[in-house]
Design a protein that fits this description.
Blueprint (H helix, E strand, L loop, with lengths): L10 E4 L4 E4 L5 E2 L1 H13 L13 H10 E9 L5 E4 L17 E9 L3 E2 L6 H12 L7 H6 L6 E28 L2 E23 L6 H7 L8 E2 L9 E2 L10 H19 L4 E2 L1 H9 L4 E21 L2 E8 L5 E3 L5 H22 L4 H30 L9 H26 L3 H4 L5 H22 L1 H6 L6 H20 L5 H28 L17
Parallel strand pairs: 7-13, 8-11
Antiparallel strand pairs: 1-2, 2-3, 4-5, 4-6, 7-10, 8-9, 8-12, 8-13, 13-14, 14-15
Helix pairs in contact: 6-7, 9-10, 9-12, 9-14, 9-15, 12-14, 14-15
Length: 540
């Protein structure tokens, strides 16, 4: 560390001025001035540290030519590693949120090629985060308190940035349809040509500690602000060393490059609907194209907030260059229950003034609510399964979004007409030739079939998530659906049978909603990979 020329105190990188600033006297210095002083100091300093023995000759040569010496702090609880100045006091882990003791060691790592300095100050970062947090009425109070300036850390995250140069011939099939009179005319095309495409700035994080799904939400980083790497930019911040090679994410980067090429072809021929799968298959054929790839190891700025609850961690992240915010907010069951009770009272009074519900209608509404909650349960369980089985994150697929919307609202589309009819005076007024008993019985059969399909179709998936025991809820829904159908068919004289099953359905819905909050909290948090480690410290 080179101290301030004026007072000798520590120099840190100042975001507002983009210069080095003295932490004591406040004087500003250009990066080039400080770098020159560091270089001169290094030339007159002999290293007394123990030598680092690389695993092979290639690694040794690479570290000698492209390496730099850093202090690595290792969390004693989760094993995560961060880089910081040797004189920095690191008292809590950025990845698991624990106030753990961090052990330091001196090592040598590959020197990054480029860096994007922080452009967003901590104050602006907090304002952006809190603007988003204010809309999260169910978020735990402890998390909202952490969303202050002292809760955020500026961390430089390592990213591999790829550049692809593609050259070769292509034959893309497509078609165009138009209606002429009463006829549908389809014209098929085969677009031939030679492609010379060049794409740069395709990035993927190079750290196992940084969750891929989080990093995907805060990109892109604009390459226009990239400068040659200089240790001065790290002063006053933390950093994370790259523990993934460039080859680990080449296929992912190539897939993004193929999407960019396909989008360009689409824009060049807007009147032709190209067949995406066949075009992507051609672009993936390495023998058809000459593809040259280069990569650089870059350090990108991220403001980082972690909130740990038991063995799961929720992250709040802000892109330190663009200010893009991504955060998962877990929900507090206590807040949700209190809010539900407060809103239930006026809703009950309003409905009590407007209508007098029959026992069969109360049971029908309970089944309707159970069907909606069951669909939401199914959707969230599939998402949890996707995350826990480490399926590759590929962004928001429109087909998947449409599928989820269908799961949520299918029951509403099917049964809303019956519900409206009941509110307007009973189903018999809409269907005068059909009795209410028959209508509700048919509805009960359909609902029971849907419950049965969800129960058995999701059985294997629930077994994979055995720690959640979610299928018990689906089993209760199935039993309630069957019993309610029998009540509609038999039509017992005592109304308490209807109310008993309706209350049982409401209780199951309430319990499942609490379970939904638990599932939501699983989706809004991650279990860091470091928690899976066993044994001692490999770096000890």
């Amino acid at each position: 560390m080179v101290g301030c020329p004026g007072c000798g105190s520590k120099l840190v990188f100042d975001i507002a001025s983009q210069q080095m600033k003295c932490s004591y006297c406040g004087n500003l210095y250009l990066i080039s001035q400080v770098s020159k002083r560091i270089k001169n100091a290094d030339e007159h300093t002999e290293s007394t540290d123990e030598p680092i023995i690389p695993q092979n000759l290639e690694e040794m040569l690479d570290l000698q030519t492209n390496g730099m010496e850093v202090t690595v702090f290792t969390c004693s609880q989760c094993g995560a590693e961060i880089l910081a100045d040797s004189d920095e006091a690191v008292t809590w882990c950025s990845y698991c949120g624990s106030p753990a003791t961090l052990h330091s060691r001196l090592t040598r790592i590959r020197r990054p090629d480029r860096v994007i300095p922080f452009k967003i100050t901590k104050e602006e970062c907090v304002n952006r985060y809190r603007k988003l947090a204010r809309r999260q009425i169910y978020a735990p109070n402890e998390l909202l308190k952490r969303g202050r300036a002292e809760g955020f850390r500026g961390i430089y995250m390592p990213f591999w940035t790829y550049e692809f140069d593609r050259d070769g011939n292509f034959r893309f099939p497509g078609e165009n349809q138009e209606i002429v009179g009463d006829d549908l005319i389809t014209t098929r095309y085969l677009v031939n040509g030679r492609m010379a495409a060049k794409h740069s700035g395709i990035s993927h994080d190079a750290s196992l500690s940084f969750d891929d799904e989080v990093s995907e939400h805060i990109i892109p980083f604009h390459q226009t602000d990239c400068v040659g790497f200089n240790e001065c930019y790290l002063n006053g911040f933390y950093a994370n060393a790259a523990d993934q090679t460039a080859e680990c994410n080449v296929n992912r980067a190539l897939s993004i490059e193929e999407e960019l090429v396909f989008d360009y072809v689409n824009k060049a021929h807007p009147d032709i609907a190209f067949k995406k799968n066949e075009c992507k298959a051609q672009l993936s054929d390495r023998s058809a194209f000459r593809i040259e790839m280069t990569n650089t190891l870059d350090m990108y700025p991220v403001w980082f907030l972690s909130y740990r609850h038991k063995d799961r961690v929720s992250y709040g992240t802000v892109n330190g260059q663009t200010g893009k915010v991504y955060a998962d907010f877990p929900a507090s069951p206590v807040k949700y229950v209190l809010f539900s009770l407060l809103t239930a009272v006026p809703v009950f009074l309003l409905l009590n003034l407007m209508m007098a519900a029959s026992p069969s209608f109360v049971l029908f509404v309970s089944l309707f609510a159970a069907l909606l909650v069951s669909g939401m349960y199914k959707s969230e369980t599939e998402e949890i399964f996707r995350r826990q089985t480490h399926m590759v994150y590929s962004g928001k697929d429109p087909k998947e979004i449409a599928k989820k919307i269908g799961n949520y609202f299918l029951s509403g589309i099917v049964f809303v007409p019956f519900l409206i009819g009941a509110l307007m005076g009973g189903a018999t007024e809409i269907f005068p030739l059909i009795s209410t008993r028959v209508v509700y019985s048919v509805i009960g059969v359909i609902v029971s079939i849907l419950f049965a399909v969800r129960f058995f179709r999701m059985k294997d998936r629930y077994m994979a998530l055995s720690d959640l025991h979610i299928n018990l809820v689906n089993g209760l829904f199935l039993g309630i659906g069957v019993i309610a159908t029998l009540l509609f068919l038999v039509k017992p004289p005592n109304d308490w049978y209807y109310y008993a099953i309706a209350y049982l359905a409401a209780l199951t819905v309430a319990l499942s909603v609490i379970g939904l909050i638990k599932n939501y909290n699983i989706l809004s948090s991650v279990r860091p990979k470091q928690f899976n480690r066993t044994g001692g410290d490999d770096n000890a």
